[in-house]
Amino acid sequence: MSTSQQPPLRVAVVGGGIAGLSAAIGFVHAQEAGANIEIKIYESASRFGEIGAGVSFGPNAQRALRLDRKSTRLNSSH
After folding, report:
1. Could you give the 3-state DSSP secondary structure of residue 60?
2. Considering just the CA atoms, what is the radius of gyration of the chain in Å?
3. Which of 6, 13, 42, 43 has the most CB atoms in a 10 Å sphere around its CB?
4. Percent with pLDDT over 90 in the chain
5. What is the secondary structure of 9-46 as a DSSP string?
């Protein structure tokens, strides 16, 4: 079976917070690169807004963000 005949990989992202939307953005980048992915985002909040929570990025998250910035720069140079 060739890739074009395979059904899409169906991905459910549960939660529209920082992690969920970051994951969704990663899947969209994969789609743009040619991956056959169907993405659905599920969020229970009726609207988005500030909730007063603090955000902290540990060493692994900081490395991932730096890698993502490098990837974005490389992709935008095409």
Report:
1. helix
2. 16
3. 13
4. 37
5. EEEEEE--SHHHHHHHHHHHHHHHTT--EEEEEE---S
